[in-house]
Amino acid sequence: MRSIIYIAAILFLYKHTKALDNGVALTPPMGFMANMATFPIETLIRQQAQLLVSGGYLSAGYEYIIIDDCWLNMTRAPDGTLQPDNKRFPSGIPALADYVHSLGLKFGIYEDYGTETCAGYPGILGHLEQDANTFAQWGVDYLKLDGCNVDVAQMDTGYPEMGALLNKTNRQIGYSCSWPAYQEFSKITPNYTAIADSCNLWRNWADIDDSWESVYAIIQWFADNQDRLAPHHGPGHWNDADMLVIGNFGLSPAQSRAQMALWSILSVPLILSVDLHTISDWAKDIILNKNLIAINQDPLGAMGKRILKLSNSIQVWSKPLLNDRTAFVVLSPEPYGTPIHVSVSLENLGLTRYQDYDFFESFDSKYIGKYHYNQVFNFTVNPSGDVFAFYTSPPH
Ligand SMILES: *[C@@H]1O[C@H](CO)[C@@H](O)[C@H](O)[C@H]1NC(C)=O
Ligand SMILES: *[C@@H]1O[C@H](CO)[C@@H](O)[C@H](O)[C@H]1NC(C)=O
Ligand SMILES: *[C@@H]1O[C@H](CO)[C@@H](O)[C@H](O)[C@H]1NC(C)=O
Ligand SMILES: *[C@@H]1O[C@H](CO)[C@@H](O)[C@H](O)[C@H]1NC(C)=O
């Protein structure tokens, strides 16, 4: 017995000394990605940065503003340094980073491990150390490193090499790796242990687009692969399901609630992609929902899992929270046009302790009632991509 405990303790220590330990992203990163099609010049990015603060997003936790592909000049400076497009960024990147910092936000930037970015701008290959130092000098807090235009086989050494060079700059830089996404698409099984040793977060799969089909496909991919993803997920190292598309054009209010609830139960990064200048009130309310954000940011950092598939394609997800609470999301994906009544036993929800559980609705924290482990829980969930979200708490 004693030796089993001893071995368990060693394994525990091993896991925690191996994974990347740069003090960044102890909860899933939250922020805003500025794509260059919508925000092509620095003044528009500054405006979004101001809105992150004045609109209450920063105080809700959305602290990063990240500029996406297409910020670069097509050529490096004569000494090899990366330089921005001087029409889009006439003040330069350090000035933009300073401005972002002056608002209390953190500054993120996009690059690519290959010879060129996906849009054809200079990639970092051949310049890793110089570029790591440039980012640190510029005041970059977060690097999204894409994987276009490079041999996928090279990523297993290249991404860790860049991670080590970022570390050597002594600046704390959140490191977002696209490495596994390219491997998954090439049918190479990613070594998620090695990825968690080098990266704070990593895109696993497809780029999201502004549609329920895309959101639903990502949710299903995470569920179908949950047993190999979840063990590598936790404080400092996160699987990434890609951006929230809430507030754009493709999702209904119900589907937007679903994306927020599922991204929260998965504990994946919450990166906004909406124009904060034109966002609707309902979308803003969902994005800023304190209870859902608290579930996403729960300090345990567990990746929620799909635990049940019921009739009518209804799926139940659950995630353990701090203090013995459990969050659940019930997703009703099919377009039946009518609310669906669901009965599920507490035992099937994994709630098997003898004491009663208190149930609360997740979006508004409204008390639902007390249930015993041998009872069933009845509720209604709307169709076409809506969710019913609730959490349980043991009685005190
Ligand atoms: C790109 O950089 C070159 C000099 O290295 C400069 O002449 C040119 O104007 C720049 N173009 C843009 C769009 O920044
Ligand atoms: C560099 O790596 C070491 C070892 O993992 C870690 O303790 C340190 O915080 C890292 N520093 C930075 C700036 O990332
Ligand atoms: C995965 O990476 C870890 C850490 O670098 C290494 O110890 C392990 O051997 C690798 N596994 C495989 C199957 O390559
Ligand atoms: C829950 O629904 C089932 C039918 O599915 C019903 O038999 C049961 O009485 C209901 N329980 C409560 C507490 O409403």
UniProtKB/TrEMBL annotation:
Q: Where is the Alpha galactosidase A C-terminal domain?
A: 301-385
Q: Cross-referenced InterPro entries, in alphabetical order?
A: Aldolase_TIM, GH, Glyco_hydro_27, Glyco_hydro_b, Melibiase/NAGA_C
For this entry, list what GO says about its biological process.
Answer: glycoside catabolic process; oligosaccharide metabolic process
Please list which residues make up the signal peptide: 1-19
What's a single GO CC term here?
A: cytoplasm
Q: Name one Pfam family in it.
A: Melibiase_2_C
Q: Which GO terms describe its molecular function?
A: alpha-galactosidase activity
The EC number(s) this enzyme carries: 3.2.1.-
Q: In the UniProt record, does the keyword Disulfide bond occur?
A: yes
Q: Which UniProt keywords apply?
A: Disulfide bond, Glycoprotein, Glycosidase, Hydrolase, Signal
Keyword Signal attached: yes
Among PANTHER family, the record links this protein to: ALPHA-GALACTOSIDASE, ALPHA-GALACTOSIDASE/ALPHA-N-ACETYLGALACTOSAMINIDASE
How is the subunit organization of this protein annotated in UniProt?
Answer: Homodimer.
Protein family according to the UniProt entry = Belongs to the glycosyl hydrolase 27 family.
Q: What is this protein called?
A: Alpha-galactosidase
Organism the protein comes from: Didymodactylos carnosus
